[in-house]
Structure formats: structure tokens, C-alpha cells
């Protein structure tokens, strides 16, 4: 007798075809996980800068997080600020070690899940006490000012990149692989739709709103970069409404792009998201402002770009048909006769 084996994806017997991607999606997923690990390691090392161990750090950083926030948020932020001010060395070393440990755990494959769990546990603390909910309660939050906060984006990326072996025709991107198509689209539309809405807030449409954000990044930067920011701020002076409205429209197009049936439109929207993230990082976030020794993270733009890459469509798996009837989705092939059986 002979054994029959199903020609399915799970069986591993589906032959390679020209339509199949050269690199498996899991490789892309692993690279994105390493990007997330690298960002956590960078965060931890930035918290070991000399300025972080002074009593000026907490009032400068945590104080800004509470600007314009309601009382129910400012009181906890004031409490956290007092603790960090009174114990700057102990608290910052602890924070740095936690974030470095998260990065190392994500980078080391056997501890990947533990690192992602640590990320998800640490993110709410940072988002509330260190970022004041990303400034979303202040009334002037916007994509150019770091909203909705880097911490919450770390958590979102950790969920999207959760290790899973899920595959099949329904897996159209790395973001879909764990949470599913519907949830992934909801996340995308909610994130970029929120950024679009924030860009159109009245505070962000003031004539000098954009130029003030750009010029605020020029202090302590290298001469060439300072020259670029100064010219950009000069050009943006008086154009806050035009820039914010244009940015809001582009972000809205990004938000709806994943809902379109055409794959080219999806890719175009994701590419636009990466371009906007790059422009925000260069002009509005000043690369996270590392030049003055006060940066605590690279800001939101690299995370937005990583999330966008996670949504990039993968090549669809080609179905294999070996049966005469197209209605039959499974087929069998003869293999080497089992030991002791007649051929």
C-alpha cells in the first residue's frame, strides 16, 4: 500500500513557485522585533546621561508633561516628579535597567515573549506618569508635538509583533499575523485618524504654531542641522493653518488607505505614512533632541514608521492545484511505499 499526503501549506509539501516571496514573512517580523528591541535599548541608555541624575530633570521633563492637563492627571504627575527629584540617581538607574532588560529580552529569541510582556507592563506606567497620556488632555496635542506619546506606540508595536506561526491566504501583512485582519485595520484607522484629527485642532492651526515647534529643536544642534531648522521655521512662520490642514488631510488619506481594495493604494498609503514620519522626526521632533543630553527616547516618528512597515502587504500565497476538479481544495500524491508493503 502507499501513503497519501495532502498538498497543503501545513504539510510543508507545497512546492516553491515564482509568486512566493523570497524571504519568509517571519524574517520580516523578526527584523521588526529587533528594531523594537533596539529602540528599548536606546531608551535605556539615554536615561543614563549625566543630566538625568540632576534635580533639574524631573521639573523640566515631567513638568512639561503636566502642562494644560486636568487636575486628576497633574496630581499624580506632581507626585512622580517629587519622587524623581528627591531620588534622581536611584529612579533613573532603575528605569534604565528596566528598559535595557526589555530590549535585551526582545532581542534574544528564547526570551522574546517575556520581553514583550515586560514592554506591555511598563508602557502604561510610562504613558501615564512620564508622558501625561501623551499630552492628549492638554488641548494642543498634535502629531508634530509628539502625540499620542511614544510609550503607547511601543505597546501597540509589541502587540502587533507578538510571535505567532499563523499563516495562510488571510495573512496579508505582518500586522495581521497575530491580531487578525479586522483588528489590524481598526488599529491603523484609529491611530492615523487620531493623528489627523489632532493636526486640525485650533491650537495647531495658529499662524506660528508650526514654526515655534520647529525652532524649538534648533538649540544645541550641529550647525548644518540648525541652519536647516532655522530656514524651515522661517518658511513656516505665518503658515501654521495651511501646514496643519495639509498634514491633517495627508494623515486622513493614510488612515483610509488600508480600507481600499487596490493593493497599490494600500502600499501608497503606507509609503506616505513612512515619509510623513520621517519629516516629523527631522523637523518637528529634532531626532528626539539628543544633542543637548536631555533626550529620554527617540520620540514617536521611528515607532510610527515601524508600525507602517508592519502593515506593508506581503506577497499572497499561491494556491496549488493538482486535482482535475477546481472545487476540490485538497489533493493527494503517492509517496515512497511504506517499509514492508508491496510497491
Itemize the secondary structure elements and their pairings.
Elements: E1 4-6, H1 25-46, H2 57-65, H3 71-86, H4 88-107, H5 112-130, H6 150-160, H7 176-179, H8 181-199, H9 209-215, H10 223-236, H11 240-257, H12 263-284, H13 301-310, E2 332-334
Antiparallel strand pairs: 1-2
Helix pairs in contact: 1-4, 1-13, 2-3, 3-4, 4-5, 5-6, 6-13, 8-11, 9-10, 11-12, 12-13
| Tally of domains | 1
The N- and C-terminal alpha carbons lie at a distance of 7 Å
Shape: globular
Count of DSSP H/I helices: 13
The biggest sheet, with number of strands, parallel, antiparallel or mixed sense and barrel status, is: 2 strands, antiparallel
What percentage of residues falls in helices of 4 or more residues? 55-70%
Overall mean pLDDT: 84
Hey, roughly how much beta strand do the residues contain?
under 5%
Estimated radius of gyration: 24 Å
Category from helices, strands and their pairing: mainly alpha
Total count of strands: 2
Enumerate the spans where pLDDT stays under 50 for 5 or more consecutive residues: 1-25, 317-343
- Give me the side-by-side strand order of the main sheet: 1-2
The SSE string, one letter per element, is EHHHHHHHHHHHHHE
Brief overview, please?
It is built from 13 helices and 2 strands, in the order βαααααααααααααβ. Strands 1-2 form a two-stranded antiparallel sheet.
Describe this structure as you would to a colleague.
The structure is a single chain. The chain has 343 residues and is an all-alpha fold. It has one domain. 56% of the residues lie in helices and 2% in strands. The chain has 13 helices and two strands. It has helices spanning 25-46, 57-65, 71-86, 88-107, 112-130, 150-160, 176-179, 181-199, 209-215, 223-236, 240-257, 263-284, 301-310; strands spanning 4-6, 332-334. It has a two-stranded antiparallel sheet with strand order 1-2. Helix 4 runs antiparallel to helix 5 (112-130) and helix 5 runs antiparallel to helix 6 (150-160). It is globular, with a radius of gyration of 24 Å. The termini are close together.
